[in-house]
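Sample intake sheet
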Amino acid sequence: MLKKTLVTVAALALGAGTAFAHVSLQLKEAPVGSTYRAIFQVPHGCEGKPTNTVRVQIPEGVIAVKSQPKAGWKLDKIKGPYAKSYDYYGTPTSEGVKEVVWSGGALADDEYDEFVLRVYLTKDLKAGETLYFPVVQECPDGMAERWIEIPAKGQSADDLELPAPGVTLIEAVAGH
């Protein structure tokens, strides 16, 4: 009986370890119609190789993207048109940052780091839904970890092997 219990505990511990081995967002909820500090947690490299590029795709409805520079990393902001024009505090906004790329760094496989964006979650987004930010970690020798899977309707991110980091949208805070 004790042996069976220990095997079960060990299996659960291993499963829990792999469940948290992906890129995730530190802040799990954010109100629509407000700014959001997206903190992407990168817990490892690629099968023993360091991460030297982190690419974050900006979903539709997320505008006014400002990326936090990182010492030792080059920062690129790829801009383009939005699918529609959004209101940003009274200013119509129809284009902006669509992808942010930190490159040239070296996050060892046994190290952890955070990559940060400040964004505006437009009022066009719907409270109660989860907004996903696909992320690709690139490593030497063409290796990569692609955290880009978005759950289908009725599916959970826990069901996916390489889930994109997501934030649950909540109702706007009164007075803001």
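Comment: The chain has a mean pLDDT of 88. The longest strand covers residues 91-107.
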